[in-house]
Amino acid sequence: MQRHRLIWLLFERHQLITAEKPQAMLHVAPEPGLAQRFAPMPHLRYVTADLSAPSTTVRCDITAIPFEANSFDIILCSHVLEHVPNDHQAMRELYRVLKLGGTALILVPVKGEHTFEDPSITDPLCRERYFGQFDHVRVYGTDVRQRLQQAGFRVQVVQATDIVADSSEIERMSLSVDEPIFVCHRELS
């Protein structure tokens, strides 16, 4: 998928994982193509987590991650939070398990400025109509950045053009220029 290519390019071009510095990474709801690239890295303690996927390292609810605080240098959480009823708690948990100075890459579908959610909408057909997919519980607006900040993160919004400067390369790789990556940092102090 476009976002998977973009994520990999961000890791690669910004050297988020290097052999010189062993790191621990939590990958929530891991995408198989990305997991195949991360898992064999000898300098990476790669942990996968999902609510129901049997092939992950840990089966857990993202609102109650079963790791100590300050456990991971990097967290990757792509297209998960729009499925989670209590996304505020999930964001706080991601922040809690991220090490001081760590980075979390969070992706969610974004449409418009304001997040729309209504917990009374439970019918799958209505959810698809209002949220874009039967198993989504909200559609995020650009204000998701404030939600992440409220969880404690310092947030930088990164677009494809911030990773790949050449528009012909963006076109060749068929990268989405509309999907942001929220690069979330846990400050040292």
CATH architecture title: 3-Layer(aba) Sandwich
- Secondary structure: helix percent: 25-40%
Q: Report how far the terminal alpha carbons are from each other.
A: 37 Å
Mean pLDDT: 93
Structural class: alpha/beta
Over all CA atoms, what is the radius of gyration? 16 Å
Strand content: 15-25%
Shape: globular
Q: Strands across the major sheet, in which order?
A: 3-2-1-4-5-9-8
Element-level helix/strand string:
HEHEEEHEEHEHEHHE
For the largest beta-sheet, the strand count, sense and barrel status come to: 7 strands, mixed
What descriptors fit this protein?
seven-stranded mixed sheet, alpha/beta, about 190 residues, 9 strands, two-stranded antiparallel sheet, single chain, Rossmann fold, about 30% helix, 7 helices
Describe this structure in words.
The protein has one domain (2-109, 141-185): Rossmann fold (3-Layer(aba) Sandwich), CATH 3.40.50. The protein is built from seven helices and nine strands. It has helices spanning 2-13, 32-38, 87-97, 124-131, 144-150, 160-163, 167-172; strands at residues 23-28, 44-50, 58-59, 72-78, 98-107, 116-117, 138-139, 154-158, 181-185. Strands 3-2-1-4-5-9-8 form a seven-stranded mixed β-sheet. The longest helix is centred in the first third of the chain and has 12 residues, at 2-13. The protein is globular and about 50 Å long. The N and C termini lie far apart (37 Å).
